[in-house]
Amino acid sequence: MGWKGLLVVGAVLLLGAGYSRAEVIIIDKEPLQLVELRKAYEAELKTAATPDDLAKLQEEYDQARKNLSKSEGYPQKISVLEEAKKKEIEAISAKYLKEQEKVDAVTRKGIDEKYEKKIAELRNRSVVKTSSSYQGKLEKLEKELIVKNDLAGALVVQAERKKMGGTPVVPTIAPTAASVAVAVPPAAGAASASVASGKGKDNQVHVNSVRGLAGAEGNASNNIYTFTLDRIGGQSKLVFYGYGNRSGNTYGRVYLSGPDGSRVEVARWRPDLLKGPKVSEFKAYTDVQAISADISSQVKQPGQYRVEFQYTDGDEAFNIYRVEIQIL
Q1: What is the CATH number of domain 193-327?
Q2: Where in the chain are the domains?
Q3: How far apart are CA 307 and CA 20, in angstroms?
């Protein structure tokens, strides 16, 4: 029995048992509304979400949350943020270094004033000055005894004077690295701080051969060299010679301070620039490789210039053997 037969039976059922008319309803087509409803249902059923579809979408959502870096546009946004962070860090670092240099300059000035005063006081109480004063008093005493006709006493004082008449024994004090370069030949064996003529008529080389050491805090001495330049030329160069204790594994910066109060980094040392023997085998500054820097733009006027060596990193402190300022 087809759908039409079923419809006939259905029609009887719809009329009910109490319906007295005995009539057969023949339906040979479906209502148009039903056809349209069925088509719409079937079309909607094709796009309807199943439980599997929801489960797959939930899994995709969970993975997307876990893998933020793979999201569209995320790497570009992070790159922009990183670049902005880098610029801010550089600006903060530059500001910090500038402020640190100010603090360094003030602190260094205080140290200079403190020790210049102490050095002046020591010179006033130097052994040479004390010995000269003693000899003057002995001479005066000898004359007084002669006037008093105490010849025996005068002879004793005279003997004391003769004993002191030679060069006084002066305690050896290690010269500081801040020795000023002067045009006086150094004594044999002494650390030299002198001016030598260069190849050209007007060339000068200011030399300081005082041994210095630039290491970590508490391991530095004689690492500031002071030069007095009585004139400047067309070109100025800084040349220095140094090496580590056992190797060249040392890093540092060299600053130049001028008479105008400026302080500028002019050079650096690092392992690839260093070559020489370990400190126990060192004989002459020519054993090590020189490092040079053009300082023409910093040397603008005659006056006092300070070269400061500052250790920054590495396994070794930096032994400074010789420093030169060349006026060309």
Answers
A1: 2.60.120
A2: 3-68, 127-164, 193-327
A3: 129
How far apart, in Å, are the Cα atoms of 250 and each of 59, 162, 163, 323? 56, 54, 52, 18
Rounded to an integer, what distance in angstroms lies between the CA atom of residue 89 and that of residue 83?
Answer: 10
Encoding tokens for residue 41? 């249902």
Closest of 286, 179, 295 to residue 241, by C-alpha: 286
The closest alpha carbon to 170, from 207, 131, 133, 121, belongs to 131
Planar angle of CA 253, 189, 242, nearest 5 degrees = 20
Residue 248: count of CB within 10 angstroms of its CB: 23
Q: Residues 6 or more apart from 75 whose CB is under 8 A from it?
A: 69
Query: By C-alpha distance, which of 227, 232, 206, 205 is closest to 300?
Result: 232
pLDDT, average across residues 184-194: 38
What number of other Cβ atoms are within 10 A of residue 25's Cβ?
Answer: 11
Query: Which contacts of 157-163 are long-range, i.e. CB under 8 A and separated by 24 or more positions?
Result: 161/135
Rounded to 5 degrees, φ, ψ at 109 are -65, -40
pLDDT tens digits, residue range 222-233? 999 999 998 888
Alpha-carbon distance 269 to 120, whole Å? 35
pTM over 0.85: no
